[in-house]
Amino acid sequence: MAVLDEMAANLVQGADERVSELTRRAIQDGLPPKRILDEGLLAGMTRVGELFKCHEIYLPDVLMAAQAMNAGLEHLKPLLVREGVPMLGRVVLGSVHGDLHDIGKNLVGVMLRGAGFEVVDLGNDVPPERFVEAAQEHSAPVIGMSALLTTTMPVMGRVVNLLQQRGLAGRIKTIIGGAPVTEKFAREIGVDAYGYDAANAVERVKSLMDTQAA
Ligand code: B1M
Q1: I need a surface site. Which of 20, 52, 108, 169 has the fewest CB within 10 A?
Q2: CB 108 within 8 A of CB 145
Q3: Residue with the nearest Cα to atom 41 of ligand 1?
Q4: Which residues line ligand 1 (CB under 6 A)?
């Protein structure tokens, strides 16, 4: 459908006003909100993820695309809620205790929101207990943690231990990322997933939600 293709293309360009306008037009044309979301906004955001992954676009482009995504979502959100179309799921996200770096974590949050997840952003310097309590409080099946300092990486393991101690491991899944974090480290501390960048984090969270639902 032309309007949805145009919407996706404009989202990739970060043209927020145009995406907003096209979303309004698609709604006026009577297209189902879920279809506008899937074939317009999410199709564009998926393309952004691919381009970012292969370094054809960069951080500012992703942030602009995310802004355009949000401009379209503003019109769709009330309709999706009314239609009872569930958001993809809820994720508690934060930079771990001792770590004030939050640019990457924020980008992961933007990409997750853009992909249709609800994100409970705890900010930075988040103690292990707070991650676990927030996941319970918000009934979030996934905790996402970011660390940029080698000295703060061990905090991620403390969250895993806490989940195990409280009998929540398996019910609440964990994903970690950040420049010094590796797949090997993720395996060693027993988290459920590792995301090497924001786009990959979205893919991994989707898989975690799928295994959760299965
Ligand atoms: Co600091 N810093 N910093 N810093 N800083 C690093 C991390 C460092 C590598 C610089 C260096 O020495 N080369 C070094 C760490 C060394 C180490 O531990 N081995 C360092 C240091 C030492 C420090 C201080 C200790 C400096 C000091 O005070 N002496 C201090 C620590 C403060 C603290 O946290 N307690 C400090 C402070 C700061 C600033 C406040 C000035 C600022 C942060 C501002 C902010 O975040 N609001 C800052 C910055 C900007 C950096 C660098 C330059 C850039 C980090 C960044 O934002 N990158 C950084 C050097 C570097 O990494 N090249 C450095 C861009 C961002 C998009 O990438 O966060 O990696 P990143 O996120 C990526 C992926 O990693 C992934 O997706 C993102 C997008 O692709 N990802 C996830 C991230 N989280 C994820 C979560 C997931 C999945 C994927 O699942 C949940």
Answers
A1: 169
A2: no
A3: 101
A4: 59, 98-105, 107-108, 144-146, 148-151, 175-180, 195, 197-198, 201
Distance of alpha carbon 125 from its chain centroid, rounded? 19
Q: pTM of whole model > 0.85?
A: no
pLDDT digits (tens, 9 = 90+) for 131-163: 999 999 999 999 999 999 999 999 999 999 999
Place of tokens 């480290």: 185
- CATH number, domain containing residue 135: 3.40.50.280
Task: List the Cα angle 30/34/40 in 5-degree steps.
Answer: 85
- My answer on whether 73 and 111 are in the same domain is no
- The token pair at 173 is 């899944």
Last residue of a domain, one of 25, 48, 83: 83
Nearest CA, atom 17, ligand 1: 149
Task: Look at residues 31, 55, 83 and tell me which one is the last residue of a structural domain.
Answer: 83
- pLDDT tens by residue, 38-47: 899 989 988 9
Q: Report how far apart, in Å, the C-alpha atoms of 166 and of each of 57, 91, 136, 158 are.
A: 42, 19, 11, 12
- The structure tokens listed for 105 are 């974590």
92: β partners: 120, 143
